[in-house]
Amino acid sequence: MDLLEPTRQAFALLLRGDPELLQIIWLSIWLSVTAILLISPPSIAFGVLLARRRFPGQRALVVLVQALLSFPTVVVGLVLYLLLSRRGPFGSLELLFTPTAIVIGYMVIAFPVLVTFTVSAVQGADPRVFETARSLGASGKRAALTTLSEVRFGIIAAVVTAFGRVISEVGCAIMIGGNIDGLTRNMPTAIALETSKGDFAQGIALGMVLMALALGINVAMAFLQGEGGLK
Amino acid sequence: MSRALLEAEGVVRRLGGRRVLDGIGLGVERGQGYVLSGDNGSGKTTLLRILAGLEAADAGVLRLEGEQTPLPRYPDDWRLRVVYVHQHPYLFHTSVAANIAYGLKVRGVAREQWLQKVEEAIDWAGLREVVAVPPQKLSGGEKQRVALARAKVLSPQLLLLDEPTANLDADGRRRTLELLPRLFADGVSVLIACHDREVIELSGVRRFHLEDGKLVPLA
Fold first, then answer.
1. pLDDT digits (tens, 9 = 90+) for B96-124
2. What contacts B102, CB < 8 A, 6 or more positions away?
3. Which of A19, A175, A210, B197 is deepest in the core (most CB within 10 A)?
4. What average pLDDT does chain B have?
5. Helices A187-196 & A200-225, crossing angle to 10 degrees?
6. Which domain holds residue B126?
């Protein structure tokens, strides 16, 4: 198979700013950013709670959330499909095959990533952080926020990883988004569709955008981490 | 009127079936410096952490300015009045000034005031030349002085220092030793867990001695 010609066409599509391509890229970023912005605060708060509080079943809960990390996203899509379909318990909301459904799916997928990374970051924090803050008069809540600030690089990593997971996710987005042109078609679902049709140019172009995004995000993260990042 | 700032009675702490602290009773007067001496493992740090409200005791009563506190519960404002400094102080990943300002901000001190207090504390601890250095790059002695400034700036009723001169190089130790008498001179009540001979022999300092979790009279 000749890869040069579709690759040349892919560059041409990107360089001339193909409107369809741009729309797909914009929708992907918009859906992913919205989902991450909505789910990050409660997930991080839950992660801090799991890391700091001792209660019956806490360990089991951590293991359960960690197990969700390896849950196939297509199964998440299937469960959400059943919940949101017309006969499902939330069918009356008419969310299936809408961008909102994809955002919900992305939030479900991002949740275990954010919680697990937060638990790991907070548990890995120097125990003196919390104690120092408390000893200087901080309330438990403020000391927890100070701890969170001290492990901010781990939290940034959690958010970036969650974003990377949802923006490249295809199974759930197809199941509950329907891959509808102009409404729910995002980069991964478009790549899958165009490739199955034998139109590699758009697939390659979107693939390059996804890889550029991944690289850009990781460079930005390394920059943000500064001296607190990897040595 | 009694000059007692803090009184402890019957403080007990058990760990793994062993009594780390076995019925400790002591009194700390206002504006007085104390050293809590004892071998490693005698319970010095545990006692300081209980007095600081950072570790729960199994039994005992504390009285701060006469207000009775049955352990292990502490009143909400306990840590606003009693400040503890770790043997190896943790400095937040901010700046030297932000570290010193932390407790002042927690207390809701107005910006103009805390800015001024932080500047004074930087000079007090001789930190002017390292004020722009990231805290994690400071030497052990400099970190200790930032921690002392961070605690002293809060004007606590009682300051608890855990081995402030341990594991410091000669210069760091000397400069920390210079700060301790200035704390006493400023009227801060200080209790220092320590077995550094020079700290124990500081002028005007009274001494408690711990052995196997009990306070014992000095020979």
1. 999 999 999 999 999 999 999 999 999 99
2. A133, A136, A138, A146, B92, B150
3. A175
4. 91
5. 150
6. 31-55+76-215
| Residues with Cβ within 8 Å of residue A217, at least 6 apart in sequence | A160, A163, A164
- How far A30 CA sits from the closest chain B CA (Å)? 33
B152 to chain A: closest CA residue = A136
Identify the band that residue B161 occupies on the pLDDT scale cut at 50, 70 and 90. Answer: very high
Confidence at residue A230, expressed as pLDDT on a 0 to 100 scale: 44
DSSP B155: -
Give the nearest partner residue to A137 out of B54, B90, B103, using CB atoms.
B103
Q: Specify the CATH architecture of the domain A21-180.
A: Orthogonal Bundle (1.10)
Decide if B148 is inside a domain: yes
B131 inside domain: yes
Euclidean distance between CA atoms B198 and B174, whole angstroms: 10
Nearest to A126 among B79, B90, B151 (CB): B90
Q: Where are the domains of chain A?
A: 21-180
Look up the CATH number of the domain holding residue B153: 3.40.50.300
Yes or no, beta carbons of A137 and B88 under 8 Å apart: no
Q: Is the pLDDT of residue B77 over 60?
A: yes
10-residue mean pLDDT series, chain A (231 residues)? 80 87 93 97 94 88 91 93 93 94 96 95 93 94 93 91 92 91 90 88 90 86 62 39
Residue A231 is predicted with a pLDDT of 39
Indicate which of B45, B85, B93 best probes the interface with A, i.e. most A CBs within 10 Å of its own CB: B93
- Judge whether B37 lies within some domain: yes
User: What is the β-pairing status of strands B82-85 and B158-162?
Assistant: parallel
Q: How many domains does chain B have?
A: 1
**B189 sits in which H/E element:** strand B189-193
Secondary element (H or E) of residue B36: strand B33-38
Q: Which residues pair with B25 in a beta bridge?
A: none
Per the CB < 8 A criterion, the answer to whether B160 and B83 are in contact is yes
Residues on A contacting B at a C-beta cutoff of 8 Å = 126, 128-129, 131-138, 142, 146, 149-150, 227-228
User: CA–CA separation, B211 vs B190, rounded Å?
Assistant: 21
